[in-house]
Amino acid sequence: MEKSSLRVLIILALALKRHIIKVMFYSLEGILSQKTEKFVALENQGVGFRIFVSRETLEKLPKIGEKAKLFLHYHLREDAAELYGFLTREEMEFFELLTSVSGIGPKSALGLLGLSTVDNIKSAIVANKAEFLNRAPGIGRKTAERIILELKSKLTSGDDGVSRLEGDLELEDALVDLGYDRSTSHQTIKKVSGAPVSFDERLKEALKLLGRK
């Protein structure tokens, strides 16, 4: 093992023992060596870091073998130490805000971030859209309402954000009614123009992307 790699491992071991690793880890840049549905691996100086990411983050990361940078949140459990990664500081800070809600752990917060953009999720909270939040894995109606209750006063969102979110939800429901699964519908809507056009025009564009005339 190279001296630089050994030095990194020694530093990490000492930091973990002293519980100061949370302060140390802010961001990490390296080569993306693995991508799965739940986590990615970044290689830095011969050390591979397993980092849990949201679906939104996973979709925006570069190809395997290319350089990537993630902002990090360190979570220490009794039986494990975990890293959670984000493309922007804003996303990381919102993740930490979500985990401040009673009953919301890191995995639940990642599931919420996988629903949409940070702005759209904030809009859902401000607009009391519990039905949007409980689409995330493990988030029931009561938990969604608790998130709204605890975070609404801490967030701001313009009318444009709420209107865009409501339009996306309406379009997603329409695609589901036409027989498409919700996950496919959700991913397709991200590619539909956000310009102020009619619902019918957006639906037509979505169906074209799905290969349906």
Radius of gyration: 19 Å
Instruction: Report the strand count.
Output: 5
Run of helices and strands: HHEEEHEEHHHHHHHH
Mean pLDDT: 84
Spatial shape: globular
Order of strands in the sheet with the most strands? 1-2-3-5-4
Query: Structural class of the secondary elements?
Result: alpha+beta
Termini Cα gap? 57 Å
Taken as a percent bin, the fraction of beta residues is 15-25%
Helix content: 40-55%
| Biggest β-sheet strands, sense, barrel | 5 strands, mixed, barrel
Number of helices: 11
**Sequence stretches where pLDDT stays below 50 over 5 or more residues:** none
What does this protein structure show overall?
The longest helix has 19 residues, at 159-177. This protein has a five-stranded mixed beta barrel. The relative contact order is 0.08. It is built from eleven helices and five strands, in the order ααβββαββαααααααα. Strand 4 (67-76) and strand 5 form a beta hairpin. Helix 4 (89-98) packs across helix 5. It has helices at residues 3-18, 21-24, 55-60, 89-98, 106-113, 118-126, 130-133, 141-151, 159-177, 182-189, 199-209; strands at residues 27-35, 39-44, 47-52, 67-76, 81-86. By secondary structure, it is an alpha+beta fold. 50% of the residues lie in helices and 17% in strands.
